[in-house]
Design goal:
The chain is mostly helical. The protein is built from four helices and no strands. About 65% of the residues lie in helices and about 0% in strands.
Length: about 170
């Protein structure tokens, strides 16, 4: 009895076999393009022209009747088209759902960042308002200067004729 080759491992597949490798993303893109085309008016117009030509040629031409009156072959073609169209449309919808999910997550993240930025700016604005409340404004300083000028006895409403100023030189 001949001995089997002992270097061959039975628990691993042969490397010589070639399988059909399909890029899932490429196939999904192709199916999405087909599904988009199936939903266009151009597809419906082309399909209508083909059906009218099919029925017309089978009704008029006696020699070319490859599909007589009940048009069984045409019905088979429609069934095959529907059998392929439905999964392609579902695959395209699943891809769209995935894109919508990613977009929704990005929108949520962007909304959270916008909310955090808005809250930060609101806190900064509130802090600035508090700080401005403690800063001397122009009206406050003018009022204080008027009071000080009244205490010195000068009339701030009447300009000093020598210098053309409303206040004495001490207030410059």
């Amino acid at each position: 009895m001949p001995e089997l080759n002992s270097t061959r491992r039975l628990d691993q597949p042969r490397s010589g076999r070639r399988r059909l490798e399909v890029d899932p993303e490429g196939f999904a893109r192709l199916s999405e393009r087909i599904a988009r085309f199936l939903g266009t008016g151009q597809f419906l117009a082309i399909q209508t022209i083909i059906v009218i030509a099919w029925i017309g040629l089978n009704m008029i031409s006696w020699q070319l009747q490859w599909d007589p009156y009940p048009f069984i072959l045409l019905n088979l073609a429609f069934s095959t088209q529907a059998a392929y169209a439905a999964p392609l449309i579902l695959l395209a919808q699943n891809r769209q759902d995935d894109r919508d999910r990613v977009s929704l997550e990005e929108d949520r993240t962007r909304a959270e960042r916008t909310k955090a930025d808005t809250e930060y700016l609101a806190r900064e604005l509130a802090a600035l308002r508090i700080a401005i409340g403690e800063v001397a404004t122009r009206d406050y300083l003018r009022g204080e200067l008027d009071k000080f000028a009244d205490r010195l006895g000068a009339d701030p409403a009447r300009p000093d004729e020598r210098r053309g100023r409303a206040y004495p030189r001490a207030f410059d």
